[in-house]
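Key idea: predict the complex, not the pieces.
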Amino acid sequence: MIGCPDHGPPSEPDHRFCEVCGRNLLTGEPAPQSEPAPQSVSPTWLSSRAAEPACASCGTAYVGDEAYCDHCGRRRPVGREHADLDLGAVAGVTDRGMRRRRNEDAIAVGRTGDVTAAVVCDGVSTSTHPDTAAYAAAEAGIAALLAAFAHTADPTRATLDGAQAAAAAARATAGPDAGDSPPSCTYVSGIVTADTVTVGWIGDSRAYWLGADPACLTVDDSVAGQLAAGRPLPPGLDADPESRALIRWLGADSDATEAQVVSLRPAGPGRLLLCTDGLHDYLSDPRALAAAASGQLIDVARRLTTIALDGGGHDNVTVAVLSHAASGGSVQ
Amino acid sequence: MTAQFSAEVDQNQYLPEGGRVVDAIVTVTAQGGDLRGTGAAPSAAEVIMVDVSGSMGMPAQKIAEAKKATAIAIDTLRDGVAFAVVAGTTTAYMVYPPDARMVPASAQTRAEAKAAVARLRADGGTAMGRWLDLANYLFAGQQAEVKHAILLTDGQNQHESPQDFQRVLSACEGKFVCDSRGVGADWVARELRLIASTLLGTADGLEDPAELPAAFQTMTEAAMGKSVADVSLRVWTPASATVRFVKQVYPQVEDLTGRRTEVSGRIGDYPTGAWGAESRDYHVSVEVEPDAVGEEMLAARVSLISGGQLLTEKLVLARWTDDTALSTKINPQVAHYTGQAELAAVIQEGLKARDAGDVDTATAKLGRAVQLAAASGHEGTAKLLARVVDVVDAPTGTVRLKKQVAGVDAEITNVRSVKTVRVKKKQEG
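Result:
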């Protein structure tokens, strides 16, 4: 036998088993069903970072990782205007929206073994180059979160480690010329294991549990969010219930490195939703969100994004959806 | 020890809708020793050109101090630095070594050179082009990285045509750096500034021949202290942009715009000569195609290059905004150096008008100069201006031309017109 009927020839000619399904390539016998198929337990993730080879303004191919087009001088976008990320049991969509010139949100989705995770960051539009902070935070966050989970199997520890790495990465994006508005962003992460759903956040991007008893899991780190939750404000801030001003964020001008963490042990199946305010400004009611959350995860993410865009799309919108299966259930 | 180049950019990045002109002051500072990390200073060659025209003997103190100064310059050379001493009249001849070549500095060659200098006699006319021509010939035989010359004169370049002089200067351009000094009352600021501009050196006048030895020592020490040779200011601009000008604005104003060498369609190099431990400021002005409000563009990438090696690089940005509080903010550095460049220009124009007998123009220009010097706290220039005008009211620039002005006062004011001062940077909150 030269290769696997389903997965082709092996990567090395002397391999005796298919790397994908474990079929014995000498006997043609499929891998025994009682044992799990060999699968990678090393963490993998993807983000919506831009991969365009050429400048959208002038069409000139980018040189190296320069931040500006070498021909016309236009700034190179850090993230994609629109991205669909789909790893099956975790999926996400980010979109520029209808009004903003750039998409300064970032999303990363990943998994290690059967455990899925996502990070969503929203660049603070009043800061300089917020997308650099958002991408640095999202990518450092998911990588550290997955690595910490692979190491400790503790989702709370992993959530805290991820946020800490994200804070350091966002802080490092401030160049010497950043001035008084260095790149900054919000952060929300989610990790779903066989029996727990854990979220961590810094800022006003949110996490919702969309199951039998849908609920918003996060409390916005904004003046309005703190007041609504009956929490005290840091000194020196006006108690304006309309104020969206952030009280915690990531960036060189922030000391926040410790995420607030909420963990659940859901009794039944459901979805974990992470989103930026580009969505929850249009749809924030957990029941309404839950009603839109059935079907394939990528379709849920697309549907929620469309709701925000149809509502006016005043901001960048980013949605990540993770599946928590009932014990022994499927990811459908 | 490695020479560390660092750069800072001062600019207002914000442009109003439709705004096209981006101005930035780039401050470049070199610290430390040798770029190549070998610890050895770069090889150097030095030619000293001494005016021995007849006027140098009137008074005899001039030639005496010039000899003393040359001896001190010779003593300041590092061991092994190739050197030569040239005497200049209507022609140029070798003082040391006797034949047209250069020799490495050593105890013996220094002693021989000083003995030869001591025998110099003042006799003849002045044709500086011939002197520079001989220096250029001497340098051509040298592989040294830093090639530096000192030219001392006490008179006007009478014995060759301006065209011949210009032809020699053009031939020397980029071959060596030359500092020029005038002594006595008859040198011409315009000629010395032309040499300094073309050959990337400094120009100055000395009021008293007794200042010569110290001046020669300073120039030679500075040349020996150069650790990186042939440094270029490299400016990248985007496709649709044009470079309005590139000027050195500190320590003196030097318009480099016309000195551009094209590297590629969007990149040009401007020569800055050799660098020791020092700091210089450049004013880069670029005109860009306006983009929409909210957009950002890289208007220029400014770097320093030596021998193909990138020493430091900074970005000049343009952002379009509808917030007039941002777009109308004037950068204090840009404003200061715009004023310093205007100061240099109005002094030169005012003195030229004065020489031509155009009292009204001279009064207006020099009055403006007094006003700018006072406003920018440029005390040196304010003092010099007070030699050619009576200041009635500095803040408004009200002046009267002095009736009696020593020729040398006007020349010193002129030759030093390009010297600038730095504005104290505001403390960052």
